[in-house]
Amino acid sequence: xxxxxxxxxxxxxxxxxxxxxxxxxxxxxxxxxxxxxxxxxxxxxxxxxxxxxxxxxxxxxxxxxxxxxxxxxxxxxxxxxxxxxxxxxxxxxxxxxxxxxxxxxxxxxxxxxxxxxxxxxxxxxxxxxxxxxxxxxxxxxxxxxxxxxxxxxxxxxxxxxxxxxxxxxxxxxxxxxxxxxxxxxxxxxxxxxxxxxxxxxxxxxxxxxxxxxxxxxxxxxxxxxxxxxxxxxxxxxxxxxxxxxxxxxxxxxxxxxxxxxxxxxxxxxxxxxxxxxxxxxxxxxxxxxxxxxxxxxxxxxxxxxxxxxxxxxxxxxxxxxxxxxxxxxxxxxxxxxxxxxxxxxxxxxxxxxxxxxxxxxxxxxxxxxxxxxxxxxxxxxxxxxxxxxxxxxxxxxxxx
Length: 400
Ligand SMILES: [Zn+2]
Prior knowledge:
The protein has 400 residues and is an alpha+beta fold. The protein has helices spanning 2-9, 29-35, 40-50, 127-133, 138-148, 154-157, 236-240, 358-376, 384-392, and strands at residues 15-22, 64-71, 79-88, 91-97, 103-109, 112-122, 163-173, 178-191, 194-202, 208-212, 253-256, 262-264, 269-276, 282-287, 292-299, 301-302, 311-312, 317-320, 331-338, 341-343.
């Protein structure tokens, strides 16, 4: 009796029909909406409403969209009510029809958290493969390689039996699913029993950089490896079989890498030449401060905007690995000149970054100790907050 009574007083609510749609190859939002029964004028308004939050051109095949329709009695025709679309793993976009008939879009950010992860790996074939085997996210590997590219020639300095450890952050969702790599906090690269350690440190003025164990920024005037080292064919194989054309008289370093691998400006400077030059093929020469020049040969092509007179920053992309000119396969030929004379690129290690001193150095050394203690832990998670406080609190009593 009670049930019957309730039913009698229930308003005639429209039923919501939910459709889970998967984006097919070549679908546009417009086509998809119309196909699913949304009126063309509504579809247009929905798209213009959500395009503040999501570029419809970034719709991916396989992406899921949830469409909710009302079926107002008595007709039963489907009438768009709302939709949910997740452009990536970090957020979702909701579009709802308002009572005035307009469409409102909002973005809901998923709850994400950072976890600290420690990885230890022995290098058997290449740094890249070792990092992959140790489950290190590619973003972290790239940060590591960038930080080491001032000091390490990945192609020659790394051999089988070398090892490294890294402490880094990864961003996970509330179920612990990996979303992306965060910051590289610490790394130690052990080449021939000689560890090179680096630390991500935020100074009291807020500036963040990677520092060596003595508190010197890893930045140097010129990079030893001016190439996206993640794709270098490093490892013992390379050592036993020197690259074709590499001889003692060679004026520079050759880095074998897949065609199209980005090449970076080894230091800040001005492009002196970008064009074809004999056996060098597509050639770039950069003039740097204090009498240095760097030369890059055999490029497949130059990066957009790279031409004579253009100023470049260290690490910016100037071109791509190729095999133009006299070359036996895709590689970067890299030379460093000092007062117009060729010098060994690996021997130029002039610091160009910050050198921590006095109180800042003391603070850094405490931080360094903290990170190292953290690394001794099997699970680097528990002291997370202490470390965060140390990083965030400029006037920490521990440090004064
Ligand atoms: Zn060469």
